[in-house]
């Protein structure tokens, strides 16, 4: 069977996703997306004319991020007009799904060389812009989950309540994410995976001085009389401090067959070993990473103990802690250079960002297997295992 290998992966530093307040807020999302696409060519020396497809993730596919942003980004990056592009939406897992599609295309023989990428400009396309206040799930789904679906923050509260996490446990985890990410930047561990944009050369939302004590002073983010009436069991704990921020950012990976890599003088760094997607309860919503992890490990013929490094998207601290409780993965191997609570979560760009960090962390630690898993709106998850070469 043809193997899909990762030749290179690169990301922008992640910026604050505030209108007018972040380092990228004046950059069109197409031009932001073009940065890692251009960097792949510059770093590998590949002729972009040989790329069979650019598959990209974006969640807010509206306004400046609509109209198949992948196509416009590759043209903005200077790729030839002969290179096609397509934009996919699996919510927060969009660019991880792009990686799956690129690898599947190579394994199937449909592609020799593909790019998997993702972007989100949350400063210019605020979260939820694509819904425009509409019932996106429709009346039948609303009736099935009567009285209706809920925001992810309430799901995070339900998870914290079900697994019995205290506020201090959530804040401890969040503070450690900031401290790990700050150490990683200080130690130069993110240098190889990033390309500066507009003079921003570090992730903008990392706060090195974050402690459990400072986080304890933050107000609750989702407590509301209406939600308390519907979910009286919740003991409210979720704050902005133990949640991921909103961010702008982009990332891209070059995926080829081993044969194509050799033909073009490229060095494979890892192979895409196994991948899986899973669905789960759309009310709990963010727990899909648990069955997705079990599914991808079974498919790979590996156990949790075989994995050397984990990248688990930190949408909320409660999500990662629940996943850890169910899988038994040691937290010492999880997001060892910090996660989205500190680094940031640019929705459609996060899957490619995590994959980029996972690849580099495997190389830095000398590990063999890395597992990446991402919770997604609607109760889904992507899971990917890569093997360092």
Automatic annotation (TrEMBL):
Pfam families: Thiolase_C (PF02803), Thiolase_N (PF00108). Residues 267-388 form the Thiolase C-terminal domain. PROSITE patterns: THIOLASE_2. The active site is at residues 92, 345, 375. GO terms for molecular function: acyltransferase activity, transferring groups other than amino-acyl groups. InterPro entries: Thiolase, Thiolase-like, Thiolase_C, Thiolase_CS, Thiolase_N. Gene3D superfamilies: 3.40.47.10. Transmembrane segments: none annotated. Keywords: Acyltransferase, Transferase. Residues 5-258 form the Thiolase N-terminal domain. Belongs to the thiolase-like superfamily. Thiolase family. This is Acetyl-CoA acetyltransferase. It comes from Leucobacter massiliensis.
């Amino acid at each position: 069977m043809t193997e899909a290998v990762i030749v290179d992966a690169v990301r922008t530093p992640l910026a604050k996703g505030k209108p007018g307040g972040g380092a990228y807020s004046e950059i069109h999302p197409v031009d932001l997306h073009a940065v890692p696409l251009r960097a792949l060519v510059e770093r590998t020396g590949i002729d972009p004319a040989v790329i069979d497809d650019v598959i990209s993730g974006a969640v807010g596919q509206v306004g400046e991020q609509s109209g198949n942003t992948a196509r416009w980004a590759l043209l903005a990056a200077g790729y030839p007009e002969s290179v096609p592009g397509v934009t996919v939406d699996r919510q927060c897992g969009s660019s991880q799904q792009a990686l799956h599609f690129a690898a599947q295309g190579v394994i199937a023989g449909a592609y020799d060389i593909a790019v998997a990428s993702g972007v989100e400009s949350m400063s210019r396309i605020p979260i939820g812009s694509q819904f425009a206040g509409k019932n996106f799930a429709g009346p039948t789904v609303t009736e099935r989950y009567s009285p209706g679906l809920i925001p992810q923050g309430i799901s995070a509260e339900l998870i914290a309540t079900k697994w019995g996490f205290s506020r201090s446990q959530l804040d401890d985890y969040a503070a450690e994410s900031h401290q790990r990410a700050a150490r990683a930047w200080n130690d130069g561990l993110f240098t190889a995976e990033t390309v500066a944009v507009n003079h921003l050369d570090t992730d903008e939302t990392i706060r090195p001085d974050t402690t459990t004590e400072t986080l304890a002073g933050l107000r609750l983010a989702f407590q509301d009389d209406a939600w308390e009436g519907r979910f009286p069991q919740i003991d409210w704990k979720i704050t902005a401090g133990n949640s991921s921020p909103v961010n702008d950012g982009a990332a891209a990976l070059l995926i080829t067959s081993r044969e194509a890599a050799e033909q073009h003088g490229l060095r494979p760094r890892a192979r895409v070993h196994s991948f899986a997607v899973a669905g789960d309860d759309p009310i709990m919503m963010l727990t899909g990473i648990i069955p997705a992890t079990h599914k991808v490990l079974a498919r790979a013929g590996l156990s949790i103990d075989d994995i050397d490094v984990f990248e688990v998207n930190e949408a909320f601290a409660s999500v990662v802690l629940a996943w850890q409780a169910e899988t038994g993965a040691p937290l010492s191997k999880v997001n060892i250079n910090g996660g989205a609570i500190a680094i940031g979560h640019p929705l459609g760009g996060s899957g490619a960002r995590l994959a980029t960090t996972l690849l580099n962390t495997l190389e830095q630690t000398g590990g063999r297997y890395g597992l990446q898993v991402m919770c997604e709106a609607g109760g889904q998850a992507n899971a990917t295992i890569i093997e360092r070469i």
